[in-house]
Amino acid sequence: MTESGETDIWRDTWVRYLGYANEVGESFRALVSYKIVRFSYVVAFAYTFADTGDKSYKMLKTDGRPKKVLIEAGDVLIWQTLASVIIPGFVINRLCTYSSMGLKRFTKISPMTRNWMAVGIGLSSIPFIVRPIDSGTTWFMDSTYRRWVKNEL
C-alpha cells in the first residue's frame, strides 16, 4: 500500500500489464502449445512476486517489525494473485471459449479463422478488464483481509 500521491510502479504504470501476461497466453490457448500458456503464467507470477518483494522490502525499511512486513506481504501477494492471475485468467479463458463456441454457428468461417477471431476478442478485452478487476479486488481486500488484520497493525 503506497502513500497518497506516490506512483506505484507495479500498479500505476505500464508495468502493471506484465501481470496480465497469462491473459495473453489464455487468449492464444487455442493456437499455441500448452507450454507457452504455462510460461505466460510464470511471467505473471514473477510479476506478482516482484511486487510482493518490493512492497515487503519497503515496509521492512520504513517500519521493520516482522509482523507488519508479513501482513504487507500477505496483502500484496493475495491482491496480485487475484487481480493479476486468477480473476483475469478466468475471465479471458471463458471469453475466448464462449466466443469460439458462438462463432461455430458461422459455418462459412474456417476453424482457424474462428480461433484467430477468438484470440482477437480475448486480446482486445484486456485493457477493458484491468481497472474493473483491480477495483473489485481492492474492494474485496478492504472487506476481508485488510479488515481482519487492521487490529494487528
Question: Could you outline the blueprint of secondary structure elements for this entry?
Answer:
Layout: H1 21-27, H2 34-62, H3 66-103, H4 111-143, H5 145-149
What would you note in describing this structure?
It is a single chain. The protein has 153 residues and is mainly α. It has one domain. It is built from 5 helices and no strands. Helix 1 runs antiparallel to helix 2, helix 1 packs antiparallel against helix 4 and helix 3 runs antiparallel to helix 4. The longest helix has 38 residues. The mean pLDDT is 92.
Short description:
The protein has helices spanning 21-27, 34-62, 66-103, 111-143, 145-149. The chain is an all-alpha fold. It has one domain.
Search tags:
about 150 residues; mainly alpha; 5 helices; about 75% helix; elongated
Main pleated-sheet profile: none
Note the gap between the termini. Answer: 13 Å
Q: Report the C-alpha radius of gyration, rounded.
A: 18 Å
Q: Could you report the average pLDDT, rounded to the nearest whole number?
A: 92
Percent of residues in beta strands: under 5%
Determine the fraction of residues in helical runs and give it as a percent range. over 70%
Structural class: mainly alpha
Domain tally: 1
What is the β-strand count?
0
Which term fits the overall shape? elongated
The H/E string reads: HHHHH
**Quaternary structure classification:** single chain
- Number of H- or I-type helical stretches: 5
Family: Belongs to the MTFP1 family.
InterPro entries: Mitochondrial_18_kDa_protein
Pfam families: MTP18
Transmembrane segments: 76-96, 116-133
